[in-house]
Hints:
By secondary structure, the protein is of the alpha+beta class. Helices cover 41% and strands 20% of the residues. The N and C termini lie far apart (54 Å).
Amino acid sequence: MSYLLGIDIGTSGTKTLLVDEDGNTRASKLVEYPLLTPQPGWAEQHPEEWWRATCQSIQAVLRKSRVKPAEIKGVGLSGQMHGSVFLDEKGNVVRPCILWCDGRTAAECDEIMRTVGPQRMHELVSNPALAGFTAPKVVWLRNHEPEKYAKVRQILLPKDYIRYRLTGAYAAEVSDAAGTVMFDVKNRRWCNELLELLKIPSEWLPPVYESYDVCGHVAPSAARATGLAKGTPVVGGGADNTCGAIGSGIVIEGRVMTSLGSSGVLFTPTDTPRVDPQERLHTFCHSTRRQWYLMGCMLSAGMSLRWYRDQMAEVERAAAKKKQADVYDILMAQAQKTPLGAEGLFFLPYLMGERSPHKDPFARGAFVGLSFRHGKTHMVRAIVEGVTFALRDSLEIMRGLGARLEQVRLIAGGAKSPFWRQVVADVFGLQIAIPKNTEGPAMGAAILAGVGAGVFGDFFETTERILPIASYADPNPQRHEQYDEFYSQFVKLYPALKGHYAEVGRLLKL
C-alpha cells in the first residue's frame, strides 16, 4: 500500500493529513498558532511557528497511523496565499510574515497602480494590486522598513517556506505565484516587465513549477525533525484555494467550491483564462493541468466566528470544556434557535478589510440594527448569515459573467455544521453537495503528491473515485424568498458606510 502526505499551512494552524492510495484518511493532526495584530489592520505570523506546527503534526500523524515513513511516496503542500516571507542571504527570516488578511498596504497599492497603470496591470497580471497581495507588501517593506528590505535576498510564500525547510530548495508553483500580482497568470510565469517597473529584483523570486511537479526531496535535517524518510519527493503543491478545490472534486467547469474556512471563497474552474473586466473577482492559475479559475474571496469568514468565540463566548468555551464538546457546536445550536434574519440584526464581516467584491482595505466589521431585543444568540446567527450574504456577492457576479454554476460543493470548517450548510443552501437558492471527505486543502495537497509521485493519474478520474458526495442540502423555497429580502438590505449597508470607513482609516493613519 502506498501513502501520501498533505500538509496545509493555514492561518489558524497547520494540518497534516496521511491518506492511502484509495483516498482513505489514515491519520490527521492540526496544530494551532496565534494570529498577531501589532497594529489595527495588521496581521502577521512567525514562520518558525509554521515549521514547529509542521514538525509536530507530521510526528503525530506518523505515531497515530503507524505507517512506515518509507511507505509515504510523496508530500504535497497547501498554504495560505499572498503572505510575504522575506529571507536574507543565509536563508534566515528577516521579519514576521505579513499575511493575506493584512490591510496596511493601501498606499502601496495606489503607488503600484500609478506606476504600472490600471490597464497595463490588467494586461500583465490579470488582477489589480490589492492590500492582501504580495507585491504591495514588498513595496511596503521598502518604504517603511528599508533596513530590513536591504537584507532581503529571497521572497517566498508561506507553504514555499515550509518546502524550503523540508528540502532546502527555493521553489514556487503557479497557483500560489498567481496571487502575488508579480505573475503573468495567462502564461504561467513571473512577469519580468512588472518586476522591472516596480524595481523588484527578479532573482529574489524562486523558480516556478506546476503544482504536481516534484521540486525537492526531504533533506536529512528535515527527516530528523519530522520523522519522514530522507529523500521523500515533495511536489509543488498549491494555494489553499486550489488544493481545497481539488480536495472536493472541483476540477471541471460547472462545479463551484464554497469554502467556509478562515477566509470565505467562491471558486469555479475555467479551461481558458477568463478575467472579470471590473476585477471584482480574481483570475488565477488552477493546480490542475492547464486550468485557471475565477474566485471571489472575502477575508473574514470563519475568522469572524473565531473572533466572536475568542472575545465574547467565554461562557460557551467553559461549557464546551466541561462537556468535552466543540464550542462551535454550542454556538451553532444557539444560532439555530434564533429566527431567520436574526430579528433584523445584520453583521458586516469586514473585520480585516475586504477583497471581493469591494476591494476596500479600510472596511471594518459592524453589527447594524442592534436593539434591546438582541442577545448573544442573535449575534451568532447574524455572523453566520452575514458571512453567507458576503459570499453570495461573489456568486451573483459569477452569474452575471455567464459562468456555469451547476453544482456547489461546500468545504472547510463551516461545512461541518448542518445549520450553516442549510443557511448557505437557503441564501444561495442552490443545492449544496457535501463531499464525504471534509479534509479540504490537505486532501488536495495529498492528491497533488499522488499525481507527482505517479500514484494517481488523471485529476477527474482520481477525484471521482476517491471523493464521493456524502450528503446534500436542498434550499427551502420559502426561506430562500425570505433571505432574498434580507440580502437586498445587506447589499445596501456597505455603500452606506464606505465613506465612514475611509475617514476612520485616515484617523488611525492606516
